[in-house]
Amino acid sequence: MEKIEINTDTINLDQFLKWANIAMSGGEAKYLIQEGEVTVNGEVETQRGKTLKVGDVVSLTGNDKKYIVSRG
């Protein structure tokens, strides 16, 4: 599991995908989320504005790599 440090208390899912270099652009992040390719804490998430907090785990479906939100 890879730790991704954020400098705020929370971050939106689409912003997190860009921050963690999971998505290269906002458009790609939007696409991945809308297509149901992103899970948060093991559940498929389709809301771009989903608020993530420290300890949340994000992954892409079909990919074993997991990213945990941590505080910088």
Automatic annotation (TrEMBL):
<dbReference type="Pfam" id="PF13275">
    <property type="entry name" value="S4_2"/>
</dbReference>
<protein>
    <submittedName>
        <fullName>RNA-binding S4 domain protein</fullName>
    </submittedName>
</protein>
<feature type="domain" description="RNA-binding S4">
    <location>
        <begin position="11"/>
        <end position="69"/>
    </location>
</feature>
<dbReference type="GO" id="GO:0003723">
    <property type="term" value="F:RNA binding"/>
</dbReference>
<dbReference type="InterPro" id="IPR002942">
    <property type="entry name" value="S4_RNA-bd"/>
</dbReference>
<dbReference type="InterPro" id="IPR036986">
    <property type="entry name" value="S4_RNA-bd_sf"/>
</dbReference>
<keyword id="KW-0694">RNA-binding</keyword>
